[in-house]
Amino acid sequence: MLSSIKDKLLNVTKTVPLFSTSSDKGAVQCEANLSAGSEILSHYQAEWQALHNQNEENAKKAEEAATEIAKITNKIERDKKSLSVMTHLLAHSNLNLNIVNCTKQIEKIYDSFNEVEGKLVELEDLIETVEFENMKKQHRYHLQQYKVRKDESLKAYEASLKEKHEEAVAEFEMKKKKELEERQQVFHEAFKSDLEIYKNLGTIPKLDLPKKQPSALLEEIQVDFDESELDQFLSDNPSK
Predict the structure, then answer these.
(1) Taking a C-beta distance cutoff of 8 angstroms, is the pair 12, 36 a contact?
(2) Residue 51 burial by CB count (10 A; 0-12/13-18/19+): exposed, middle or buried?
(3) 20/17 Cα distance (integer angstroms)
(4) How many Å apart are CA 240 and CA 235, to the nearest integer?
(5) pLDDT by residue for the chain (240 residues), tens digit each?
(6) Distance separating alpha carbons of residues 224 and 182, to the nearest angstrom
(7) Phi first, then psi: what are they for 42, rounded to 5°?
(8) Measured between alpha carbons, how far is 21 from 164 in angstroms, rounded to an integer?
(9) What angle do CA 237, 239, 240 make, to 5 degrees?
């Protein structure tokens, strides 16, 4: 490509009088074209720049490819070494026996795990049983406390009822006593009235009691009287 550019430049120097090196004085002088060939130079300069950039990009890609090839080569070497070590171990070591022993140990550990799991289940059952017994004890204690509070409440209620009953009885007795006192007062007034009538008339008037009125017992009638009045009455009527 550079040789073709050189040929074209030589052709330009031959055809354009400005670049001619001939000393022929009879040659015709013409005006110099300063921009002659500039487009061609620009074109090939751009082409050369593109080729240069492409070469640099190819160099970078080649370097990256070399790096990847080196990585792959190192990996293959490591894999080869690992494979050789594994082959040596499989051929010259007791790997199979060790694997069998490891399998047996794993089986023993598995059995131990099962045994421990069974013991844990038993422990959980025991804990649940103990918690249930504690809960029963707590319920019994709360029930006893409830019974005690119930008995105390019942005793307090009984005491309250007894107090109310005593108050009612006392009130009834006071009322009854008041009624008896009123009756005694009525009988006393009647007795005094009858006594006055007897003093004046010498006889006691007969009382007409209602038929439906219940007769009072003699023991229930309590007459309050003054003995001096009775003595005076007897002294005033000795013949009677």
Answers:
(1) yes
(2) exposed
(3) 5
(4) 10
(5) 545 655 665 565 555 554 444 444 444 445 556 666 778 888 888 889 889 899 999 999 999 999 999 999 999 999 988 888 878 777 776 777 778 889 999 999 999 999 999 999 999 999 999 999 999 999 999 999 999 999 999 999 999 999 999 899 888 989 888 888 888 888 888 888 877 877 777 666 665 555 544 544 444 555 555 566 656 666 655 544
(6) 12
(7) -65, -40
(8) 156
(9) 65
Q: What is the pTM of this model?
A: 0.30
Residue 9 — left, alpha, or beta (φ > 0 → left; ψ -120 to 50 → alpha)? alpha
78: exposed, middle or buried (C-beta count within 10 Å: 0-12, 13-18, 19+)?
exposed
Place of tokens 């309250």: 160
Answer whether 204's CB lies under 8 Å from 197's CB: yes
User: In sequence order, what are the residues at sequence separation of 6 or more whose Cβ sits closer than 8 angstroms to the Cβ of residue 32?
Assistant: 17, 18
Question: Is the CB of residue 66 less than 8 Å from the CB of residue 51?
Answer: no
- Residue written as token pair 């109310």: 164
Q: Quote the tokens at residue 91.
A: 């051929």
Which residue type, as a one-letter code, is found at position 60?
K
86: its two tokens: 């594994």
Q: Do 16 and 36 form a contact (C-beta atoms < 8 A)?
A: yes
